[in-house]
Amino acid sequence: MKKLAFLFAILIAFSALFTGCDDSETLYVLNWGDYIDEELIGEFEEETGISVKYITMANNEEMLVKLQANDCRFDLCFPSDYIIEKLIEDDLLAEINKDNIPNMKNIDERFLDLSFDPENKYSVPYMWGTVGILYNTTMVKEPVTSWDILWDEKYADQILMYDSVRDSMGVALLKLGYSLNTRNEAEIEEAANALIEQAPLVHAYLGDSIKESMINGEGALAVVYSGDAMWCMDEEEGNPDLAFANLPTSNLWFDNIVIPKTSKNKDKAEKFIDFLCRADVAKRNTEYIGYSTPNKAALELLDDSYLEDPTYNPPAELIANYEIFSDLGEFVSVYNKHWERVKAN
Amino acid sequence: MKKRSTLAYPCVVWILIFILVPMFLIAYYAFTNEGSFTFENISSAVQNEIYQKVLLRSVVIAFEATVICLLLGYPIAYMLSNMKKSTASLLYVLFIVPMWMNFLLRTYAWQVILGSNGILNTIFEAIGIGAQDMLYTEGAVLLGTVYNFLPFMILPIYTVLIKLDKSHVEAARDLGANGFMTFFKVTLPLSMPGVISGITMVFIPAITTFAISRLLGGGKFMLFGELIENQFLSARDWSTGSALSFILLILVLISMAIMRHIDKDTSEDEKGGGKLW
Lengths: 345, 277
Known about the structure:
Chain A is an alpha/beta fold. Chain A contains 14 helices and nine strands. Chain A has two domains: 2-128 and 254-313, D-Maltodextrin-Binding Protein, domain 2 (3-Layer(aba) Sandwich); 129-252 and 323-344, Periplasmic binding protein-like II (D-Maltodextrin-Binding Protein, domain 2, 3-Layer(aba) Sandwich).
């Protein structure tokens, strides 16, 4: 009996080691790497006396698993559209009290009340963008006007694709003229076959390192998010030979701020959201990250060059044709089955 | 006696939390479907042609990496064991030092070296060979695997070789065997425990790795570890993921059993051989 009690005591002592994130004075933020101007975090801490712990993730799916597991409390997360839809469906998000976020008035109405979160009950827009083709003008002499160029044998072994099911299958679906959210298996199969046909031309399927590869001139054409394109074309740190093409059809995406239900610091989390929505903060943040801000008060403060840049601010009539990802639920396994065929090839 | 068993509790708890519980979870997800027992997950995973292809590729790359590690590692260990003690310890440390650095960082470094505008290609162009396509090839994956796991081959062999009773070698030479024969008839058989241990320590991590193929293979050479990760993250299919983990676990256990069997045979035959542990 004594032994058992001892074992039990050690078990408890042990488990205490893993609940290190249960400090209610600290705000735990789960975000993508390099997706906030970290100086702003310091300023927020100084202004409010709330300390912030910033934790990064590599992709949406990883974040979803983390939130579903409920193993560690996060107070703020920055997921993309279709993941927010899934999180709402799984009842993992807390409703946001907009009275605590007066700066929400700065957000442009066209980014509110979208299909994945009607009335923005659970999320506040953070950044948005499109998917297009980043190309190196020293290697690609023709204009980039269609997804078909990614299947052009001239560019064999110079094409970079995303190592992600939705993004890469999406490109093939767009090339074939289908919906990004199709649930028709024949169309998905056709898209996967197109990717298999393309595979010999692909230099690599990468994640974030696409940016670095393009800056280093390792690829001629790459599928990238518009915000990453801004980063790659940056005058100081980027490569001046790179250019970005918005295509007639593409994916329009949003990364919003949400508060998971497990948060015990909802008030403080809302304070942080309000801080991020402040015009001057949003301006500095978008300048740092390079992703487009949905904050119209911040846009007014920004240099005109941003507004005139079609990468940063694609024309509204163009993005009207773009499609937002929706959560596929169980059907995601069909996409995955065909994506595995591409990857194992 | 009493005290010792008390001290063992943390270890027992550790094993419980980090080995037994996860194993149980894998088995649970692998053999159930919505709560009821089934072989369906395993059998459909085994029959899936794509998974077979990926598994075969993982085994082949792990096998190639092990052979290369052995061919490189044995001579290195042999040279080390015949050196002056002080030189040997210095070189030994040099082999260990890279292992102090995180293995992902070491693998990232290869991206910089092998990239099409990387260090090697800059040298190649300067001496007129011209740029080669090295990064994101199967060769790069193999190189990364060999590089990362080579120390695990060298160290056990070296440990056995320095403990080896030199009088066996001297006896062989006295009886007229030349250096070549002495090596193949005496030293090599006596060092088998180290070789076996090295093979196990290279082959098993090599077959389960996925970071190397992702970083150096550019996502074009999917290995079994990546396949499993995919099931948990993008496919959200824990049953298949667990079934695949289970299959890998069985394979690892089989290969360990084979190694153990060979090890037992050699150590029974070769009394007086160097023991690793």
